[in-house]
């Protein structure tokens, strides 16, 4: 069921379908002045506020805005001091990141456009100083809200504080912005993962956010922990639950602000921009790709035929910027939701992911792999448990034994325990299928000029998955693990060594087992003599026949 969009009759540039879904059309009657402006022209002279700019997606958003909208006036970014680093230090470190190489080339002074604002989103008023509130109120034209806790095991109180309450406070701040044209909220395609078919609508929230927030205020952490599974119900974690609540909170403001909601699925490395394969974290599939490349992860529960709904980060950001432009220019009267997914347009399946990840890491191996990359994904619980025992726990035990014997600290079992914890939280997403309607994404594309369609490309029909996965795997090697591509021959040599160790180990094991068997069983001895005599007879036969032909 979708929420009631009561003003269906007077939507500007929008059509409301029978089921309540709000769709874009090419009607421009509701546009403001610059409707014909290209995306870059629209952002020219604009001041943009970005939350979560130090995060994975936020950084890509900042980079793309600076590179493709060079006339943008200023990017105000909400940043908190963290891990002993001041806000300023964090921002200057961020700008040194390789991601900004292309922008740096175009404009070495690009950092002057970035204006950090100290903010801790979990604090009242987002801990923004009154002077900064005034400054933002006077100048911001567009808000992109990316900040969130994306941890799947986040305690409910904290997830609500950051994903729901902070969103609410940001919306209050947005009300004080006198020149605000658009508020773009980044959600997730899995906010409604308790449904199999997900339309571009905001579904009724699982609970009234206000009531939940009030209750959480007086409950102690123990009680909250105990009731969390009951509260989240059909959702697998507090992350998806609080992102669903946040959507509802944002929707409540749709009559007072121009709102767009972007729902990306599983965000992966960049496809094209600023260069293929850029990734800087272990979240989502990236950590598992690395674990598979290192030969540590060799089995996990996933359905071979289910769609792996990956979406490259640059596609999400291009769509986000286009949605910002559309929302500001066309001013839809109700919040538009964009399911930013690939499954319905260019599907790719978990079985194919496994195949391409493994073959890519065989071609471009990671340094110091534990074992040769090899994987077995299955949806069968028992088969998976068997492989965990044989391919994870047993090798870990042997390796730890080896470490102990050589006077080192055992570590492999600990690594596997952490990996199993991560897998247990991720398997939910790889073991089932969802269907997203992504019509708004296609229709937004139809609104762009041919030039913008190239500069802000989010046409995922053009995505070549094997090539994308290859670049993704190389990206994890180069940008997450900081490994040098020139070391690949040595890494290949290491894999050959591992293969030889495996052959030797397997041969010794088979001979050993057989010897034990022969020593204990007359039947095994008889079979052994039979096989040996058969081999001998074959050998004699071939020798005789080759003598005759000569
Ligand atoms: C058999 C081989 C097949 C090969 C390929 C098959 C790949 C299948 C991939 C399936 C993936 C499915 C992914 C679905 C994701 C759905 C996404 C929904 C979309 C979103 O909206 S949100 C963003 C997603 N959010 C996340 O991904 C966060 C998940 N992470 C967490 O919640 C926590 O990190 C976690 C896993 C609970 C661990 O917490 P904790 O123990 O406190 O430790 P740290 O966070 O400090 O990390 C510890 C350690 O683990 C590494 N790590 C983190 N994440 C992963 C991961 N996904 N895979 C592997 N390893 C991971 C982390 O880097 C740390 O390592 P250190 O060595 O640095 O300590
Ligand atoms: N990654 C993915 O696969 C997907 C992500 N999304 C959504 O995209 C958005 C961005 O995700 P992503 O970039 O991957 O996440 P990251 O974890 O990389 O970034 C989160 C950002 O939020 C900021 N933040 C977190 N807590 C606070 C706080 N208390 N005060 C101030 N800032 C804070 C972080 O700042 P700091 O650096 O200080 O920690 C960081 O900049 C999120 O809304 C997420 O739900 C949606 C679908 C998939």
TrEMBL record:
Enzyme Commission number: 1.2.1.84
Topology relative to the membrane: Single-pass membrane protein
Catalytic activity: (9Z,12Z)-octadecadienoyl-CoA + 2 NADPH + 2 H(+) = (9Z,12Z)-octadecadien-1-ol + 2 NADP(+) + CoA; octadecanoyl-CoA + 2 NADPH + 2 H(+) = octadecan-1-ol + 2 NADP(+) + CoA; (9Z)-octadecenoyl-CoA + 2 NADPH + 2 H(+) = (9Z)-octadecen-1-ol + 2 NADP(+) + CoA; a long-chain fatty acyl-CoA + 2 NADPH + 2 H(+) = a long-chain primary fatty alcohol + 2 NADP(+) + CoA
Subcellular location as annotated: Peroxisome membrane
Thioester reductase (TE) domain ranges (all copies): 50-319
Key words of the record: Lipid biosynthesis, Lipid metabolism, Membrane, NADP, Oxidoreductase, Peroxisome, Transmembrane, Transmembrane helix
Record-linked Gene3D superfamilies: NAD(P)-binding Rossmann-like Domain
Membrane-spanning residues: 503-521, 527-544
GO biological process terms on file: lipid biosynthetic process; long-chain fatty-acyl-CoA metabolic process
Record bears the keyword Hydrolase: no
Signal peptide as annotated in the record: none
Top-level class of the enzyme under EC nomenclature: oxidoreductase
Ranges of compositional bias, category Polar residues: 1-11
Domain Fatty acyl-CoA reductase C-terminal residues, every copy: 392-483
Single GO molecular function: alcohol-forming long-chain fatty acyl-CoA reductase activity
Residues covered by region (Disordered): 1-26
GO cellular component, one term: peroxisomal membrane
Family matches, as Pfam families: NAD_binding_4, Sterile
Role played: Catalyzes the reduction of saturated and unsaturated C16 or C18 fatty acyl-CoA to fatty alcohols. It plays an essential role in the production of ether lipids/plasmalogens which synthesis requires fatty alcohols. In parallel, it is also required for wax monoesters production since fatty alcohols also constitute a substrate for their synthesis. Catalyzes the reduction of fatty acyl-CoA to fatty alcohols.
Family, per entry: Belongs to the fatty acyl-CoA reductase family.
Protein name: Fatty acyl-CoA reductase
Organism classification: Eukaryota, Metazoa, Chordata, Craniata, Vertebrata
């Amino acid at each position: 069921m979708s929420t009631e969009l009561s003003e269906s009759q007077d939507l500007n540039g929008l059509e409301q379908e029978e089921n309540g879904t709000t769709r874009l059309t090419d009607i421009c009657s509701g546009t403001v002045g610059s409707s014909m402006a290209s995306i870059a022209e629209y952002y020219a002279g604009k001041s943009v506020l970005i939350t979560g700019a130090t995060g994975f997606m936020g950084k890509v958003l900042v980079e793309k805005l600076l590179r493709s909208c060079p006339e943008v006036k200023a990017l105000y970014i909400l940043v908190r001091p963290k891990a002993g680093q001041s806000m300023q230090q964090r921002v200057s470190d961020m700008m040194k990141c390789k991601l900004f190489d292309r922008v740096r080339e175009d404009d070495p002074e690009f950092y002057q456009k970035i204006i950090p604002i100290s903010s801790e989103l979990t604090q009242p008023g987002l801990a923004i100083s009154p002077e900064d509130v005034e400054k933002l109120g006077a100048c911001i034209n567009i808000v992109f809200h990316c900040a969130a806790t994306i941890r799947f095991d986040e305690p409910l109180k904290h997830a609500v504080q950051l994903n729901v309450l902070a969103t609410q406070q940001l919306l209050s701040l947005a009300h004080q912005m006198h020149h605000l044209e658009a508020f773009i909220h980044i959600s997730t395609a899995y906010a409604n993962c308790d449904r199999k078919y997900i339309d571009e609508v905001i579904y009724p929230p699982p609970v009234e956010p206000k009531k939940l927030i009030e209750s959480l205020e007086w409950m102690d952490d123990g009680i909250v922990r105990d009731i969390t599974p009951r509260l989240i119900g059909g959702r697998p974690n507090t992350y998806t639950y609080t992102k669903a609540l946040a959507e509802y909170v944002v929707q409540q403001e749709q009559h007072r602000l121009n709102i767009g909601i972007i729902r990306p699925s599983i965000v992966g490395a960049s496809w094209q921009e600023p260069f293929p394969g850029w990734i800087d974290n272990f979240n989502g599939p990236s950590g598992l790709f690395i674990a598979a490349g290192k030969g540590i992860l060799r089995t996990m529960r996933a359905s071979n035929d289910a769609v792996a709904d990956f979406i490259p980060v640059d596609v999400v950001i291009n769509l986000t910027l286009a949605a910002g432009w559309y929302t500001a220019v066309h001013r839809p009267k109700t919040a538009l939701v964009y399911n930013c997914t690939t499954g319905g347009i260019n599907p790719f399946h978990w079985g194919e992911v496994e195949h391409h990840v493994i073959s890519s890491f065989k071609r471009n191996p990671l340094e110091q792999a534990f074992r040769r990359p090899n994987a077995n994904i299955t949806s069968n619980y028992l088969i998976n448990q068997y492989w965990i025992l044989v391919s994870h726990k047993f090798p870990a035990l042997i390796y730890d034994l080896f470490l102990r014997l050589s006077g080192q600290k055992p570590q492999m079992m600990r690594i596997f325990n952490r990996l199993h914890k991560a897998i247990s939280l991720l398997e939910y997403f790889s073991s089932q299928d969802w269907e997203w309607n992504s019509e708004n994404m296609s229709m937004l594309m139809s609104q762009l000029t041919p030039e913008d369609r190239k500069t802000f490309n989010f046409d995922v029909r053009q995505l070549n998955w094997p090539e994308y996965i290859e670049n993704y795997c190389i990206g994890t090697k180069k940008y997450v693990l900081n490994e040098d591509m020139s070391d690949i021959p040595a890494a290949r040599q290491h894999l050959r060594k591992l293969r030889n160790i495996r052959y030797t180990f397997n041969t010794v094991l088979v001979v050993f087992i057989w010897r034990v068997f022969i020593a204990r069983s007359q039947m095994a001895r008889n079979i052994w003599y039979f096989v040996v005599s058969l081999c001998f007879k074959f050998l004699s036969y071939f020798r005789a026949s080759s003598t005759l032909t000569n």
